[in-house]
Write a structure and sequence with these properties.
By secondary structure, the chain is of the alpha/beta class. It contains nine helices and ten strands. The chain binds adenosine-5'-triphosphate and magnesium ion. Magnesium ion binds next to helix 1. One of its GO terms (cellular component) is plasma membrane.
Amino acid sequence: MTHAIEIADLHKYFGQNEVLKGIRMTVDPGQVVCVIGPSGSGKSTLLRCVNLLEVPTKGKVFVDGVELTDPDVDIDAVRRRIGMVFQQFNLFPHMTALQNVMIAQQRVLKRGKKEAEVVARENLDKVGVGAKCDAYPAQLSGGQQQRVAIARALAMNPDLMLFDEPTSALDPELVGDVLTVMRKLAEEGMTMLVVTHEMGFARQVADRVVFMDGGVIVEDGEPAQVIGDPQQERTRTFLHRVLHPEE
Ligand SMILES: Nc1ncnc2c1ncn2[C@@H]1O[C@H](COP(=O)(O)OP(=O)(O)OP(=O)(O)O)[C@@H](O)[C@H]1O
Ligand SMILES: [Mg+2]
């Protein structure tokens, strides 16, 4: 079976600073893999290398068997199959929710206005903000804005979704709505690579949890293993800090 994502000996330098130091991992179709780890450990850089928002310095990245790091690859074609959701929702402030979900469909996929609108409404309904089609981002809560951003990604019919701390910017009471949408996507079989500190989500939804520290993968295994019974001291220390921040 072809992996949905295969990362082979990935290194990334920013100047002299080696931020990813030989990452190897795979994500299979339909799997949900959560990446956890301290600030600065390279989680966002790893995700950004998977859709070439960052260019790897060394190593290979494959998406559905297509090598992204091959200089001859049609990167726009590969990127169209990958949805990305960021901590900051990055909606266009001067466009309504509906327009935000239509625009890339029209520009990138060349869908007509009617079709783009139908697809946008379907996806806004799916994430529970169908009633907010005509609202501008400033008129929406953070949780609603993030769900519009998810709808925008889904409207492009991606094979794969990357999430970079999608709930970190949200007030605590809004986190659940976004996680519910992500859980539903996972249940529908979407392949997902998710950077998150939501350990409940990782435990319940992830097939695997990857703990990164200092640009390397320290542990990679089932959630019950990595979160419930970590083998490495670094993992235990990190989890303790996340699960007991008040101490
Ligand atoms: N564009 C860039 N130019 C230079 N250095 C960068 C750049 N992006 C990231 N870095 C550095 O790479 C390292 C890893 O950053 P990265 O954002 O991947 O960490 P992270 O694990 O996502 O952290 P956080 O949990 O805070 O989001 C950090 O030392 C950061 O300063
Ligand atoms: Mg980050």
